């Protein structure tokens, strides 16, 4: 069963730009400048989305001089993927279950 934490995380990842950021960070650790170049988003907009991802525990930061690098936390994504895998398996087992209408 999905928890409120799961649904909050799904909402965070449902935004197209945040999903694009997560996809990019799955490939490599990037700073804000790289993410601006890759996404075409304005720096302030990107920073707001990164803050949401950081507060949701999806990314972590690494200061490097005057830059901040962002890294995806794979365990968070894996845990959510596991929840969806559990739902899929439950649905496979329930194909013959049909509740009768009153």
Give the helices and strands, then pairings:
Elements (H helix, E strand, L loop, with lengths): L3 H11 L1 H12 L2 E2 H8 L3 H13 L3 E6 L2 E6 L1 H20 L9
Antiparallel strand pairs: 1-3, 2-3
What does this structure look like?
This protein is an alpha+beta fold and 102 residues long. It is built from five helices and three strands; from the N terminus they run ααβααββα. It has helices at residues 4-14, 16-27, 32-39, 43-55, 74-93; strands at 30-31, 59-64, 67-72. A three-stranded antiparallel beta sheet has the order 1-3-2. The longest helix has 20 residues, at 74-93. The protein starts with a helix and ends in a 9-residue tail after the last helix.
Average per-residue pLDDT, rounded, comes to 92
Spatial extent as radius of gyration: 18 Å
The main sheet comes to: 3 strands, antiparallel
Task: Provide a count of the helices.
Answer: 5
Q: Determine the structural class based on helices, strands and strand pairing.
A: alpha+beta
Helix residue percentage = 55-70%
The string of secondary-structure elements, in order, is HHEHHEEH
